[in-house]
């Protein structure tokens, strides 16, 4: 089924207001969830919303909390989210990183006690739209086995890197081959994943999303490389924010909250003039796109270039929502 942007946003806001979330906060949060969904990131938009409400009702999320600065060290700042709404806090932190970059050329904000930020790519995009290079990542509760293990001890710890090209080029990747959100998207659609998503109970690679959702044996992205990347991202986020690590979140909390996040903005325009920047970026894009195709019917992929098309299609035709997810939303 497809629903309009306004109808979807209204449902999000209705549910938030019914939980006594203040009107301005409900409006801003509903807008971000609707924007994420219209962008085609259903796994962290409408599909994730019932889980978000569950944590809100449980008290893991403090809707009125505002982030506060703990420490300033030139271009690096530490902030405390106080368990505020994750997507609203993350947006503020990337705004702050850009403001610091205006002064120092680079801005780094390290955040502790944060909640799930929903679509991480949104904050890289937020920076790139304004001409900055945007880099951000978060740790999580332990939801993936490290390479060589079958017990969850590391996070999927998504990493985002966005470049202000035209269109914006952005990597938004979990350290696992598939996030749990994308496993859900494939399961709801009755699809196997395109490549192995994890291991079955016997330790063999599988493309069955339901199996991996259940046994939580995700395949690290790039095998041992994704496992290693997850570990070092966790270490850096923990050290810079003086917040909780994956191990501490997992052992000390009963769910995924109080995570640590990093937001980096790099001011490009004082390093290179606009015409040269555009020329160099276009050269890279053209060089990649004109490579001989492995399949004549499938274009060479550039990360993030699909989002403008998806946004326009969903704006024109309505946003696709799984009927079961819509029923959950209406019942909240």
From TrEMBL:
Pfam hit, one: Ldh_2
SUPFAM superfamilies registered for this protein in UniProt: L-sulfolactate dehydrogenase-like (SSF89733)
MF terms (GO), sorted A to Z: 3-dehydro-L-gulonate 2-dehydrogenase activity
UniProt xrefs under InterPro entries: Mal/L-sulf/L-lact_DH-like_ah, Mal/L-sulf/L-lact_DH-like_NADP, Mal/L-sulfo/L-lacto_DH-like_sf, Malate/L-lactate_DH-like
EC number: 1.1.1.130
Top EC class for this record: oxidoreductase
Protein name stated in the entry: 2,3-diketo-L-gulonate reductase
């Amino acid at each position: 089924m497809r629903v309009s942007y306004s109808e979807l946003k209204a449902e999000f806001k209705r549910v938030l207001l019914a939980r006594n979330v203040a009107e301005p906060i409900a409006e801003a949060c509903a807008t971000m969830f609707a924007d994420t969904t219209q962008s085609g990131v259903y796994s962290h938009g409408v599909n994730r919303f019932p889980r978000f409400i569950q944590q809100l009702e449980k008290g893991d999320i403090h809707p009125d909390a505002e982030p506060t600065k703990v420490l300033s060290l030139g271009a690096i700042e530490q902030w405390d989210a106080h368990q505020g709404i994750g997507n609203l806090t993350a947006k503020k932190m990337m705004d702050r990183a850009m403001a610091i970059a205006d002064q120092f050329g680079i801005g780094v904000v390290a955040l502790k006690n944060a909640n799930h930020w929903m679509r991480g790519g949104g904050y890289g995009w937020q920076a790139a739209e304004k001409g900055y290079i945007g880099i951000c990542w978060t740790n999580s509760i332990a939801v993936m086995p490290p390479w060589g293990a079958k017990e969850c001890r590391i996070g999927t710890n998504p990493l985002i890197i966005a470049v202000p090209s035209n269109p914006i080029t952005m990597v938004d990747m979990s350290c696992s081959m598939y996030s749990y959100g994308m496993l859900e998207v494939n399961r709801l659609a009755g699809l196997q994943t395109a490549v192995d998503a994890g291991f079955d109970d016997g330790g063999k690679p599988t493309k069955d999303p339901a199996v991996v959702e259940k046994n939580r044996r995700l395949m690290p992205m790039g095998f041992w490389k994704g496992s290693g990347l997850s570990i070092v991202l966790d270490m850096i986020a923990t050290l810079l924010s003086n917040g909780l690590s994956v191990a501490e979140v997992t052992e000390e909390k009963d769910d995924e909250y109080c995570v640590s996040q990093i937001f980096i903005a790099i001011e490009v325009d004082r390093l290179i003039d606009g015409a040269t920047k555009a020329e160099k970026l276009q050269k890279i894009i053209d060089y990649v796109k004109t490579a001989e195709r492995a399949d004549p019917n499938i274009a060479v992929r550039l990360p993030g270039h699909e989002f403008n098309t998806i946004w326009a299609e969903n704006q024109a035709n309505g946003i696709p929502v799984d009927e079961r997810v819509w029923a959950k939303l209406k019942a909240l």
